[in-house]
Amino acid sequence: MYPRHTSRRAAGIATVLAATLALAACGTATGGAVGEPETPSEPVDLRMTVWTADETQLALFDEIADAYIAENSDLVSSVTFETIPFEDYTTSLTTQLAGGNAPDLAWILESYAPEFVSSGALADLRPVLEGTEGYALDDLLPSSLALWEDGEGLYAYPFSNSPFAMFVNTDQIEAAGQPDPADLVESGEWTFDAARDISAATAAETGKEGLVVRDFDYQIWENLATVWGGWGATPWNEDGTQCTFTEPEMVEAMTWFHDAVFTDDALPGPGTTADFFAGDAAMTVTQISRASSLDDSFGWDVVPLPAGPVGQQNVIGQAGIGVFTAAENPDVAADFLAYFTDSTNAEKLAAYFPPPRQSLLNADTLAEANPKLDGDQLQEVVVDGVQRAVTKPAHRNFAQLEQTVRAELDALWTADADVEAVLADTCAAAQPLLEE
Amino acid sequence: MPGGVTVSTAETRGIAVARRDWAVGYAMVAPVVLGAVLFVVVPLVMVAWYSLHEWNVLANTFVFVGGENYARMAADPGLHDALLASLWFSVGLVVLNIVLALVLAVLLNQRLPGTTTFRTFFFSPVIVSLVAWTIVWSFLLQPEGGINGFLAQVGVDGPNWLRGEATAMIALIVVQVFKNVGLNMILFLAALQGVPEELQEAARLDGAGAWRRFRSITLPLISPTILLVSIITVVGSLEVFAQIDVLTGGGPGNSTTVLVYYLFQQAFRFNEFGYASALSVLLFVIVLALTLLQWQSRRRWVFREV
Description:
Oligomer: heterodimer
CATH topology of the largest domain in chain A: D-Maltodextrin-Binding Protein, domain 2
Number of strands of chain A: 11
Largest sheet of chain A: 9 strands, mixed
Strand content of chain B: under 5%
Strand content of chain A: 5-15%
Structural class of chain A: alpha/beta
Radius of gyration of chain A: 25 Å
Order of helices and strands of chain A: HEHEHEHHHEEEHHHEHHEEEHHHHEHH
Radius of gyration of chain B: 26 Å
Largest sheet of chain B: 2 strands, antiparallel
Helix content of chain B: over 70%
Shape of chain B: flat
Largest interface: A-B, 41 and 41 residues
CATH superfamily of the largest domain in chain A: Periplasmic binding protein-like II
Helix content of chain A: 40-55%
Number of helices of chain A: 17
Number of domains of chain A: 2
Shape of chain A: globular
CATH architecture of the largest domain in chain A: 3-Layer(aba) Sandwich
Number of strands of chain B: 2
Strand order of the largest sheet of chain B: 1-2
């Protein structure tokens, strides 16, 4: 007769439960404020998340990193630049944070700047930057820092202030017998209406698409800021507490856009993708840093954004680099950031990422670094562009706003949409989130 | 012997052998148990634990709030919409999938010419990568894409599939059905081939028509497989995510935001890991309830050969 096994079964279950609880223990790293880095016991590996996959840009980063490692071999042994695809960049970044795998440094989109800055996840960089010899913190444009400051602290460095511009395919436009946008800029007639007409005619002629607002895709609506700027419209007011989608300027701007898509066929409709840099569109609104995607397979030019009824409004996209307090070595990371963005390296990076440094914002400096664009293009588009520009919409509750507004605006992207009604619904849905 | 139980030498040896067998048995299953504990039980317990907290990843706050997340679920209009969307999607998918799989299996069972090609054609989507499948469909569903091109040939003006609320849902259901119908078809085919030919012969001799035979002989005999397929398909339908993310992003509006997608948004877009964990628990309860419901109902309609 075998002894009964109940005690053993109980023991088995207890072991499983104990294993469960043991494995469920998790810990997160916490960091302190950043200051002068103490020499670590062994050189650390730094990791910076970026959203560019461009080989030339990454090679440039590696070059700068190697120079830093050569000078500071006791602090840092390697710097890895990890590319996360742009579409899901912020989501992937917060997932890394959730998993306790925070990168040392990360690029941050300006729309999410208020959220990140106010969260306490980023380290205050001001002491480090002020303390770094030869950094020249006052060379930075105060207006460029606005989004990244909270009180006295500076929580991310706006390393890229890339103006939006209009790239045009001169081959296609000429073939359609349309006026050259550069000429229209000279004569002061470069308006959104002109851009729409040229795009519609060129698309009809070539069978390809007309004007593409890059990265919009009828989903990332904040990229329409480059269009509605010409009408002086904004999605919400200065302090982000009041929805202004229903204001007359915005209604006019959205009506213009809606009609340009569905009536004039000047822009590709929802669901149709076209890449200007592959030669599939007549013109595109995108950031100047995309110039590196040009492969000279067609004739092109770059001109400032067209003027709307209210005038011409420059828009810049900013990207900041921040140091996470949750990372393992925030002090060393901040020190590397100070090096990465000092005057010398900012000049090297200026080819793709216009720095917020007044001393570097002139056509000559930028021309040396960016062979693809000529002096006039750089002066008109980049230098002038950064000076009088506004940033894309940003808000401390941007993630929820982005999703809610996107869902509401979906009703707008049909031929028979009632623009005013849709915008009214948008404000109704967005207002509670703005007040949160 | 004073007190105690008298145990013979033979019994002692027997107990020792039993103990060793027992130890070996546990050692054999230990790896599987460890895997199950690590990848199933632990996450389940952790998610239930997280659902009792408010956890903002960015701000690094992890605050115990008890049942607050669950109270929030009751008052959340977004969740109610998501549940409705899930209902439409699941019902549409399960009905279409099972009916189509059964029809295809019956056709394949006729052993008409071209059976092997037909079977391969419908089974290959099952083994193709999900994302590759979805990306190909995203091109087909474009307003100027393959589907509308084909419809234009027959003189029909196709809609912008992924941009209309109803058409987007239909498109998603069809994409998912074609991905998995092959598997259900093979399961039904195996079941059909288990139906004894003599019963069909006898019924035919008694004058029963094809439909009568199907209803009264085939269906009851394959009902265990129908139960299995329906459980698998219902559970699977509540877990569909990749197609929605790639094709519609939950849109247009929120019409294709099913429960899984809603919970993904809460966790990974809005950084509300606590609330998302509560939603995960809700999803688990729903799936469990539906499975138990189907399992319990088997006595009523699944034919048992006793």
